[in-house]
Amino acid sequence: MVSSVLHFILILAEVVFLFNVLILVHELGHFLAARWRGLVVERFAIWFGKPIWKKKINGVEYCLGSIPAGGYVALPQMADMETIEGKGQTPKEKLPPITPLDKIIVAFAGPLFSFGLAFAFACIVFVVGRPVNEFEAQCKIGYVEPGSEAAKAGLKPLDVVLDIDGYPIHKFAGMGNSVTWRMITSEGDVVRMNVRRGDQVVALDIKAQYEKKAFWQRKPLREITFLPADSEIKVETVMPNSPAEVGGLKPGDIVVALADEPIYTSAAISRFMSRSPNVPVPLTVLRDGKTLTFTLVPEIPAEPEGLRNPMLGIAWASHLKIVHPSPIDQINNSVYAVVSTIQAWVNRNTDVNASHMQGPIGIMNVMAILFRSEEGWRQALWLAVLINVNLAIVNMVPLPVLDGGHILLAIIEWIRRKPIHVKVLEVLQTACAMLIIGFMLYVTFFDVQDLRWNFSNKPIKFAPKTTATTPQ
C-alpha cells in the first residue's frame, strides 16, 4: 500500500508541476510587461483563495493560493480587479496614471507568453516525438455494435469512411476531419455518411443514438457505436495462470475470428465479453501458418483486490508509432482544435454544450491519466501545447476580467480619452467575475465526476492453475 501511495503522489506531483508551469509562464508575461512599462506590481499569485504560502520581495508579494484554478498579477493601475484579487495595498488616488497603450501591452503579454510556451513545448515534442495509434491515421471500420443504429443503417466491418455530412474524413480519432469529431458535432437527427465498400461507394443515413445518463451527469453526446480496425490482432504477452495461458494461447498468435466470425479489432473481444459475461470465448488464431481454435473461460483476477470484471489475461501488441510533427503544425492543429470546439459550443444545433468543457480539475485529471501510461510523458507534453494555446485564445475573449477584456477597456479609454467610470467598471467586473466563477464551479461539478484516481499500481495476477487445454 505504501508503494501505491508513493506512486500516486509522484503522479500528482508531476501533474501539479506541469500545470503550475503553464500558469506561471502566462502570469510571468503580465509581470515582466508591467515591470517594463513601469506599473506598480502588488502581488504575483499562483492559484486563488487564501494563501498557503506567501513572501514579500522588493515590494511584491509572491503567494500560492489554496484554490487550484489559475493565477494573477495584482496590477492596481489596470482595471479594478478587487472582486477576484482582493483589496489593493495602495490607494488608487495615490497611483500614477498609465496610458491605454501600457494596459494593452501588459494585458497582451500573458497570452503572448502562453503562445511562446506552447511553441517551446511543440519544439520538445518535435524532438522527442508523440505516440500515435494507427487508428488516428486511417478510417477503416473494424467493429460495429450489433443492434446499434449504425448496424441498422448498414455499416459493416472493413468499410472505409470517406465523408460525414459532406466533410471529407482523414482519420478516425482526434479533432478536425475525423470520424469521432464529425459524428459528435453533426447537427441533424441523421448523420449522413459515405463509405467505400470494395470498389463501391455506399451512402448511409445513421440515426443519432445517445447513451442514457443521469440528470447530474454531462449531457450525452452522440454515441459512436463502431470502432476502427487494427492492422492485426496480435498477442504480445500472456499473463501467468490466466485463462489465455490455461487455454493455450501464446505470444505471437494472431487472432482472426471470434465464435467463427472474422474480427478486425481486439476491442470486439472485449465487447463480446461485456455482452456475455462468464461465457466461454471461442477464438481462432494463426500460429506459424496454421489455424488453431481455443476456448477461453474469462476469470476475475486474484489481484489486485476489488476487480469485478472477468478477464482473459492477454496484452495485445501495441500499434503505436512515434511521430515528429513540426512545431508550426502542432500550433496550427491546436488553434483549430480550440476554435472548432468554441464553434461547436456556440452552435445550438450540435450536442456540445457547457457541460462538456473542462476546468483545471478536468485538465489535471487527463494529465494524471496520461502520466500513468508508459508513453504518457510524451502525450502530456503534446497536451501542454494544446492547453497553452487554449489558455492564450480563451484569455483574449473580451470579458472585463480576462486579458481580452482589459484590452477592450483600454481601447475604449483610448477612444474616449478618459477611463470608464469606476462605478460602471465595478459593476462590469463583478458581473463578469461572478459569471466566470459560476462557470468554473459548473464545469468542476462534472469534472469531479470524471476523476479516476487509482492508488494501486499492483500488476494483475491470476490464481495458480494445474492443467492446461490443448488446441482443437
Explain this structure to me?
With 472 residues, the chain is of the alpha+beta class. It is built from twelve helices and 18 strands. The strands form five sheets. Strands 12, 13, 14, 15, 16 and 17 form a six-stranded antiparallel β-sheet that branches. A four-stranded mixed β-sheet has the order 2-3-1-4, with helices on one face. A four-stranded antiparallel β-sheet has the order 8-7-9-10. β2 (53-57) and β3 form a beta hairpin. The protein is elongated and about 85 Å long.
Question: Which short descriptors sum up this protein?
Answer:
472 residues, alpha+beta, Pdz3 Domain, 6-stranded antiparallel beta sheet, 4-stranded mixed beta sheet, 40% helix, elongated
Extended strand count: 18
Helix fraction bin: 25-40%
Based on CA inertia axes, which overall geometry fits? elongated
Individual helix count: 12
| pLDDT < 50 runs, ≥5 residues | none
Terminal CA distance: 43 Å
